[in-house]
Amino acid sequence: MAVFVLLLEAIAxxxxxxxxxxxxxxxxxFVCSSTAIVMLLPYIIQSSKRRRHLRxxxxxxxxxxxxxxxxxxxxxxxLVYGFHLAVSPLSIQGTLNELLRWSWIGLILWMAYMTSxxxxxxxxxxxGWHMMGAVLAVSSILSIYGIISLPHxxxxxxxxxxxxxxxxxxxxxxxxxxxxxxxxxxxxxRLFASASTYKSHTPSSTMxxxxxxxxxxxxxxxxxxxxxxxxxxxxxxxxGAVLLNKDERKSFLIICSTSVFGAVMIYLQLSSVExxxxxxxxxxxxxxxxxxxxxxxxxxxxxxxGRSLIFRYxxxxxSVIMLILGxxxxxxxxxxxxxxxxxxxxxxxxxxxxxxxxxxxxxxxxQGGETWRLSMREVQxxxxxxxxxxxxxxxxxxxxxxxxLGLMIFMLFLMSYRLLRARSVMTGCCAVLITHSAVDFxxxxxxxxxxxxxITVLGVPSSPIKRADEGVMWHWTLRxxxxxxxxxxxxMAIVVLLGITVQSLRLNMGEHWxxxxxxxxxxxxxQSLLERSLRWNPYDANPRxxxxxxxxxxxxxxxxxxxLSFNPEHPDLWWQLARAYAQAGExxxxxxxxxxxxxxxRFNTNKQAEALTLLxxxxxxxxxxxxxxxxxxxxxxxxxxxxxxxxxxxxxxKTIHLRNDREFYLTKxxxxxxxxxxxxxxxxxxxxx
Length: 689
Hints:
It comes from Paenibacillus sediminis. The protein is mainly α. It has 27 helices and 2 strands.
């Protein structure tokens, strides 16, 4: 059962945008945790029937004793998120999302590890690996040639600093950089596997099949034009090459050079037409170069393993020449991006600077899940756009502080150590993920962690366990009515899994009804669906914000204040609360709500402008109702907001190399409103005198 679920989840992760969005994770976690309960529950039932010697295997020690620690680390990270839930984090929804995500990682790691030691488990996991690669690669190729339509699979832009020739491949992940890293991992796995497979007596058919996926992987990697991913892949290539023996390195050189040379031809052709080739002719040309590349590989391998010294040197020389030609062609094709345009690097520098300032607030345990997403608009020093912190390690540092980052790095170290101790060439694949995650948000994708797990499990040889007491990490021996510690622990594990299952179901249903409400045409139906969504998941701010606009002001205030108890620093909840206070006539509370909303999102042009209009309208209303002092206080607060807004725009306009992605500026309407506030304040002051 575990193997079937693993294969199902592997394919689903690829199809569900690499499991980037939490709504997709809820469904897969529900399936995974339900399966784990089904696997464990029979042992509880059997023990109640007093089976005399029941042994349960939850994991296997394998060749390395530290494996058992590695299996528990994802759950330990989830436990730290659970601690945050108990002490009011920055966002209960965000923290709960991360807790569930790490629970999913822990379940997949346990299932994959256990499967690798059972029967044909490794072969099935290897099939799952190739299925993932095939789904990602084939879907992208068909999308490029217009055979299928994949939304956002190709990023088109006229900015040379983002794409050298107007288009970059993003694939099913809808993000070129992470898709490039994933393709880099699959490229290195096939490259090292093919080099290790080849011997002088290896049948050509075997080598043909082994090298078959390599060519499309390299083509897709190149089409992403991700400089960081290319560099990380080169690092992984060097790490893996060091672990190959002498003969394997020779095969490695030939296979790498011929595959790269053929892939570059397709890359240059597709890039020149902005990834919009003719479908039929383009596919024929792609397949022709693909087959030709493999045949050239087989030919040079035969020459390189022959008895003639001259032919061997000729094959190596031809390989080096093809590598130089291929690498040179790539460099000159994207030279401007490699040597001139570094705006994305400067943007990351700004993000990292602001993230470190945020980290200094709570350095040890962080502020819980999705800290950057909620706090970014408050701490940013320039109005850039960046809901992701662009570093998996920095993201963990903000969420769980030094403690959480230490646990995650320790887990990655144990995974790498396991591979290095076995001198596995898959260490190179692991190096690609580890290095690039430092400069991008690859770890926000469940697919990245899935590959980490698959690499860790498949990279080390394992033998199937023959007897129940051979290689078992833990034994549960239940005798008659004796309630042992092991039995209690097993019951606790099932209780935890039940909680995870129920919670993932609740969040999934909440998201389901929220999406349905957005699609509803009638207002009454939409309101009913939003209320249903909040009954399933009261922690999500989005349904509250939408629903608060459909109910009366007093109900909206109650609804939004309840939401702030779950997300106390949510800028959009505070802004909507300020609006609701104004509509409900709670004038004394509007100013403080506006203050908080603008403090949490100061570079929002619309909010800054609307805040001035809101305070002016309230001041006029108070004046008409005869509340002169209240009107004066409100108007003076509006003038203060106007001056802060104007000062902030002046400050940003003087900033050198300003990143104004959010288009923050002083609008003419806001400026006019500010002058109206000043005139109204003078009028009120004159009347008071």
